Known about the structure:
Subcellular location: Cell membrane
Bound molecules: adenosine-5'-triphosphate, magnesium ion
Enzyme class: transferase
Mean pLDDT: 78
Order of helices and strands: EHEHEEEHEEEHHEEEEEHEHHHHHH
Region (Disordered): 392-412
Shape: globular
Family: Belongs to the protein kinase superfamily.
EC number: 2.7.11.1
Number of helices: 12
Helix content: 25-40%
Number of domains: 2
Amino acid sequence: MEKKCGCWAVLKRGVRGSCKSSASKDSANTIPRTSLVYDAATETRYLNASNRELCAPNEAQLSSDKPNPPTSESKTPCQLLQFSFQELKAATGNFRPDSILGEGGFGYVFKGWIEENGTAPAKPGSGITVAVKSLKPDGLQGHREWVAEVDFLGQLHHPNLVKLIGYCIEDDQRLLVYEFMTRGSLENHLFRRTIPLPWSNRIKIALGAAKGLAFLHNGPEPVIYRDFKTSNILLDSEYNAKLSDFGLAKAGPRGDKTHVSTRVVGTYGYAAPEYVMTGHLTSKSDVYSFGVVLLEILTGRRSMDKKRPSGEQNLVTWARPYLADNKRKPPYQLVDPRLELNYSLRGVQKVSQLAYNCLSRDSKSRPTMDEVVKVLTPLQDLNDLAILSHHSRLSQQGRRKKKSDGTPQITYTHCKSIRDSPLNTGKQLYR
Length: 431
Ligand SMILES: Nc1ncnc2c1ncn2[C@@H]1O[C@H](COP(=O)(O)OP(=O)(O)OP(=O)(O)O)[C@@H](O)[C@H]1O
Ligand SMILES: [Mg+2]
């Protein structure tokens, strides 16, 4: 049994500071309630769109979605540094455009430097490198997510969660200061870089992210992450994965409650369909999103891609037939072609089966994140690369041919991709 590391502090909600926007009124949830089991057609209908918000910003909210009101008893999360706006302005060289690391729904993320002990800015290249996220001044929603981020990340510590160093709250300004993650997001590595991410790194990242989610789900006060996607998985220099962005995170159900009823937010293509349909949030919603990311890791395809032919735009819909134990559509046909034959055959089988289980239409049938970690852990050591099996079969064939008619042995260099390969049948590869 793996040693669990990480630390859970009892969540004390609320950060000092006020939001200037008027609070939206609570009202009854209008999302239709249906069974948690749904059919494929419904799934496709709900998944064929691509927005971060899954419902209109002013759509009905449940009381459980109220922002955490700043109260007189509010406690600033321990160990977080409080920066002034001037300090962060200096740390990022005046928020220089060439220090922008990325942009998300809530604003730009800048690279900056601070002194080792304290909040003072440091010269570029000295002290500690940080990532400074500056929220667009867009009122209640941004503030709500900023508070959630400080609340959760200020008190949850684990090697697979990004470290929040501190924050700034001054007038309208809301900023967050994180440890700098050298290799940026998984999204960048899977979809933007020209060099493909090696198979072993993909497994390492999936495992790290799974451990992060398992930690959240298994604490004394479970947390549902709600925004699991490739852009929220950040990578350090060793490709250790860390979850970032807790703006949408939610405390899990308490007592004998099976779910939390909440406004539906998240990202299309990742959100579990039963959650989109009912607003019922469980840790199994995160497991579904994990299944989607696992598919992205396996295929190198985005969860939603409008540039692909219809039928292939929604990754889950396209990939599902290959994931089931299907002789005519074996899972290796899903593998990111950029990997060529540099992947583990057994690894692909196991990852496909795991993705299939995580994406189960019945949320109760999905594995827990602990179970996911158990499946992924041994896959790190597999070295049954497809290319090795390919070489050995070609040389066997060559020897047989040479024996029978004296013609020279064929070489593997003619077949770069598994799709060109004479081994391109599920039977041969998985015998
Ligand atoms: N701590 C960090 N270290 C290095 N780069 C980071 C860090 N945090 C964020 N980034 C970069 O900034 C980008 C934008 O991050 P951000 O979380 O604001 O938005 P997003 O995840 O892309 O989208 P969304 O707003 O939907 O969450 C990331 O994709 C990543 O490349
Ligand atoms: Mg993000």
